[in-house]
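Progress against Task 2.4 (sequence-to-structure conversion) is shown through the following example record, which the project officer requested during the mid-term review.
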Amino acid sequence: MNTDGVHTAGSVLYIEDNLINTMLVERILQARPGVVFASAADGRTGLDHAERLQPDLVLLDLELPDIGGEQVLAGLRAGPVTRTIPVIVVSADIDPAVHHRILSAGARFVLTKPYDVSDLLRLVDGVLPRPVTPTDPDGLGSPAVDTGPQHGHADVVVRRSVPEYLADDRLRE
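Structure tokens generated for the chain above:
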């Protein structure tokens, strides 16, 4: 339960080959106590986990060691039990043509690395069944920030950097 008393719920599968990135996202999602986190280090394992676990959300990197993230997305969309799972692509690729292709293929959002922690949490909150309140949009008791007009994608508002987030005493065990 967050400071606003709202229960967080849902499962997230992160398909990412970089262990540091996986550990970082797992740590960030600890701000959402009801979120169950799973990961896969390559595309084929990710597809298998997605079919078996049927998560509420898939976070997907594009550069994977066995098959590319676009192939994983196509596999998710083709699978009878995975076709409706929302996918957020988390990638360092900044090419607008790639983003357009990914969104056209069925990804819900593209979050470009490096990203702000609050942007990741806002996107996750937008997909998982947890209302975001105006007084606590990132679940950590910080005040709301006007993100400006929405244009069908994540507008970037820098609120807290990853090192600042990891140094937050409220996240320490």
